[in-house]
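Renewal narrative, Specific Aim 1. Our central claim is that a sequence can be written position by position from structural information alone. The example that follows is taken directly from our test logs and has not been curated for this report. It begins with the structure tokens describing the chain, in the order in which they were read.
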């Protein structure tokens, strides 16, 4: 059967219409990645609308370097829009960000967990409220500068790792739902290196072509979590005891918030035959539990709030053999998922890993392809 000659071919964003008739909202952080996405789509003739989120106090942000969404970044995003000739809006999301991300970050940290606020920001702010704003603007889709791939599969759009493993951001995007995925586009996911992105920025004459990448959580620009928590919760730094795994008191500490699972330095315990590591944070009793390195090894991980992206329901099998990441910087390790419900499971690592911490994400990967099956949040268990 011959195709209707009046049906236009799919454009680069997957729509059967001309780019000029396709409105795309680009989430612009002010960095080189999202700037290149916006410039490229504008050059291709799309109806581009740039949106930058002001997520926390603008005045306090102006002096901070290396963090996204600060005053300089808003200026840089606006400048790209002016250079490329498309409209740009700054949306005040401070209250939403405070409620959806910062408050939980503080509470989670105080409870002895090690939170990943960038995931919550994507889940609860960028891919929720901003995505709804994009729909209100009559956009056909929303594009971001994330390094991840969206591919059309037999059962709908699938999430895949970026072509450049060094830039892959799948760990931070595991909670993207199928509904969100159908509306999202990631134009940089197929690039082989960041150098290609910077070359495109230079090609479009963007002033941000050589702008350094942001390294820290945007509201923790110096990486000092504890100082931020103390500002948010002034009573947080309550002193307590450092104890061994039998409960023997070894030293005093100045607040559980100053410690993380796996930490070795700065414990203030000397004269021991073997080094000790933080193996548990007992926030309720204000105790830091330390032990030998082998005590850090974890094989079984309780996971909840699972966002499952497989073709069949999570509970359709007793076991799923996958790869999992329990930290963004580690490659996927072989594991078995044993579902408890549609949103809870026990994950067994075939090779134990050190430093697995409540509050971190556990992300599921297909070991035979680039596909991501979603993930969940590590917690203490029952």
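The sequence written for that structure reads:
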């Amino acid at each position: 059967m011959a195709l209707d000659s009046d049906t236009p071919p799919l454009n680069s964003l997957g729509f059967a219409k001309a780019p000029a008739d396709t409105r795309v909202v680009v989430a612009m952080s002010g960095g080189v990645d999202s700037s290149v996405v916006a410039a490229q789509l504008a050059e291709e003739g799309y109806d581009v609308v740039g949106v930058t989120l002001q997520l926390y106090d603008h005045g306090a942000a102006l002096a901070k370097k290396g963090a996204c969404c600060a005053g300089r970044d808003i200026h840089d995003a606006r400048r790209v829009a002016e250079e490329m000739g498309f409209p740009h809006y700054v949306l005040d999301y401070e209250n939403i960000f405070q409620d959806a991300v910062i408050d939980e970050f503080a509470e989670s940290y105080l409870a002895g967990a090690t939170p990943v606020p960038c995931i919550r920001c994507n889940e609860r702010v960028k891919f929720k409220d901003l995505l709804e704003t994009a729909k209100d603007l009559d956009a056909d889709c929303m594009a971001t500068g994330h390094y991840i791939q969206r591919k059309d599969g037999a059962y709908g759009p699938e999430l895949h790792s970026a072509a450049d493993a060094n830039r892959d951001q799948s760990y931070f995007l595991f909670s993207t739902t199928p509904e969100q995925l159908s509306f999202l586009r990631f134009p940089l996911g197929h690039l082989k290196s960041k150098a290609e992105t910077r070359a495109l920025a230079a090609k479009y004459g963007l002033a941000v072509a050589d702008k350094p990448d942001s390294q820290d959580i945007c509201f923790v620009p110096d990486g000092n979590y504890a100082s931020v928590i103390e500002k948010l919760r002034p009573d947080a730094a309550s002193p307590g005891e450092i104890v061994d795994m039998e409960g023997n008191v070894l030293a005093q500490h100045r607040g559980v918030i100053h410690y993380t699972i796996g930490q070795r330095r700065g414990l203030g315990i000397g004269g021991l035959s073997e080094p000790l590591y933080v193996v548990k944070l007992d926030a309720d009793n204000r105790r830091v539990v330390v032990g030998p390195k082998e005590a850090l090894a974890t094989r079984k991980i309780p996971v909840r709030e699972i966002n499952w992206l497989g073709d069949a329901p999570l509970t359709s099998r007793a076991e799923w053999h996958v790869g999992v990441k329990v930290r963004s910087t580690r490659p996927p390790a072989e594991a078995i998922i044993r579902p408890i419900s549609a949103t809870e499971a026990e994950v067994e690592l075939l090779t134990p890993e050190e430093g697995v911490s409540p509050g971190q994400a556990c992300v599921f990967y297909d070991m035979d392809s680039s596909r991501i099956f979603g993930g969940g949040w590590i917690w203490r268990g029952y």
